[in-house]
Each structure stands twice: as structure tokens, then as C-alpha cells.
Amino acid sequence: MVSLGFMTLVAHVYGAPTAATPHCPLRRMTFGALGTHCEIQYDCDDAARGAAFEQAALGWVQAFEAKYSRFRPDSLVSRINAAAGMSWVEIDADAERLLALCDTLHFLTQGILDPTMLPLIRLWNYKAEQPELPSDAAVEAAHRLVGWMQVQREPGRIFLPQPGMALDFGGFGKEYAVDVVAQIAIDHGITGVLVDFGHDLRGIGRPPDRPAWHIGLEDPQRPGTHSASMALTQNRGVASSGDYLRRFVIGGRRYGHILDPRTGRPVANGCRQATVIAGTCLHAGILSTTAFILGATKGLEFIQSFPGAEGLIITESARAQTRGFFNHVVS
């Protein structure tokens, strides 16, 4: 998963409340953050409680972005990256917990999720006006700067030992934020909420007078259209990874934005989309990205190794899914 997400899911509520149905107090909050469009839909008939929740959610997201975004020159992450190869940087207990989470995710994904991928992300810049293929030497040089196990940590401080090393929490940061905001809703007594940050999602409860939150799954062959709709009930997260929107083409060959840390190059295994439903958005996100990078066969095996997770992988010529995935599909 890269820094800004994959934009492959579209969330909506079938028969959403309108002015004609005031008995269904579904509230919506939208804002821009974490490099994407964020929307929160929630059920609350108490205006004061809803306002308190919105203030707390927005405040937390803004603080999280200010501290951990690599695009903010004064953020903690930017300060850590600027000190690479030169000095240790002091960190607080909150950052310690986030770095410990990096340890866990790196281990669980067998090294596929690596927070030190930024040198390669910068090299394979699909956003450039005229993208260019980096040379083999440039890829090798950037690849040498990648490796979570190189990062040195002591209580209260961190050090990137090589000049040019850099951290980027975009591989999981947005999904992590989705789950935190969902918990903030619960803490404010809100039992029905759908948090959607760049179409990485977490649903709690259900919308008012509706059986479920319905999530439209985008068709990678026809971006902007839905191939199916999923019903999200109880407490689940959904994330989808794909390379059909964020990529460039040179010489008739496409180069997607999802990079394989083992090769230092864009994934080229025929996958177009991997979607996972799991207990949290973070869980779904790391599984979908890892599965996409591993490819259809190994990716599906990886998803199935996590109890409660269900997934769908679409390749250029086929579809593969876990046995229980389509229990969530309603159309």
C-alpha cells in the first residue's frame, strides 16, 4: 500500500435518508486530509454529541497528519528523514507505539510492508509530467536504502543509519487513522458509523433503518463503474489495492505505483485488484496490499491464513476469492 491509498472502493448507503425521511438522522462529515477525500457517515440524533464527535475526529486526524506526514516539512517523520545518516531523533511514547506497530506489520507481512520504501517510491514517480524509467543502477542504489531491519531504535529515539534512508507511513497510516476515528465514534456513544478515508473503510453497526452499509466494488477493467456491492455489517473493515489508476505506460508496458520491496520495482504479476474484508481497516489494508504483491495464488493463501479475513483478487484474466468472500456480496 502506498502513501495515498488506492481509490478502488466507493461507499454508499442504499436508500440513504433524505429530507423526506427525517426519522433517519444520518449525518455526514467531509473534509480533506491525509492526501485524500475523507467522509464520515454516522447515526446520531443528538446534535451536541455529534458536534463533539466531529470536533474530536477532525482534531485527531489533523494532529496525526501534522506529526507523521512526510509531506509536512516540520513533521516528526520529516525530521527523522532529514537526520538520516547524521543523528538520532527524539520521539515520544505515541511515536514509539507507531514504530512498534511497524515492527508487527513488517513481521506479519513477511517483509512486504516496509516503512523504509520511500527512496524507491520517489524513484518510480508515476506523478511526474513525463515519467521516466529509472536505470538499473538507480534502482539498485535506492534499493540498498530500503530495509526496516536497518532502522536503529532505542527507548525515546530513532536513527536511520544511511544518508538517503527515509520513512513513509503511507503504507498503513490512512487505514490506521480510519480505525482510530471509528473508535472515537464509539467513545462518543455512536453505534452506527462508516468511516471512509480515500475509500479505505470501517463500518460500525449499521445506518439508520437499513440492514447494512453497502460498499460498491470498483471494476478494474472499467474504472468508475461497480462490479458488485458488498454489505458491511457489525464491525468490519474493507480495503482494496490496485494499480490500474496510479501508473504510467512506457513502450506499451504499464508500471503501477505498488512496488515490490523484494525487487525494488513495480509489481508485474498480472494482478489488477485485491480486496479484503477483515476485522479492522488496518488489517484489511495490509492483507490487500501484501496479497497484491504476492500474486493471486500466494496472495489468496496469505489472506486465508488470517482467521476472519476474506478476499478477492482480480488478475488480467481471472478472479480468485476465498470461500466466504461472496457471503458479503449482495449484487
Task: Please describe what this structure looks like.
The chain has 331 residues and is an alpha+beta fold. Among the domains are: 71-159, T-fold (Orthogonal Bundle), CATH 1.10.3980; 211-330, T-fold. Helices cover 30% and strands 27% of the residues. It has helices at residues 47-68, 76-82, 93-108, 118-123, 136-144, 173-187, 281-294, 296-304; strands at residues 9-12, 26-33, 36-43, 89-90, 152-154, 157-159, 193-197, 200-204, 213-218, 226-232, 235-242, 247-250, 253-256, 259-260, 265-266, 271-278, 310-315, 319-321. An eight-stranded antiparallel sheet has the order 2-3-7-8-11-16-17-18, with helices on one face. A hairpin with a 2-residue loop joins β5 and β6. α1 (47-68) runs antiparallel to α6, α6 packs antiparallel against α7 and α7 (281-294) runs antiparallel to α8 (296-304). The longest helix is centred in the first third of the chain and has 22 residues, at 47-68. The protein starts with 8 loop residues before the first strand and ends in a 10-residue tail after the last strand. Mg(2+) binds at residues 171, 289. Keywords: FAD, Flavoprotein, Lipoprotein, Magnesium, Metal-binding, Transferase.
State the gist of this model.
The chain is α+β, with helices and mostly antiparallel strands. Helix content is 30%, strand content 27%. The strands form five sheets. It has an eight-stranded antiparallel beta sheet with strand order 2-3-7-8-11-16-17-18, covered by helices on one side.
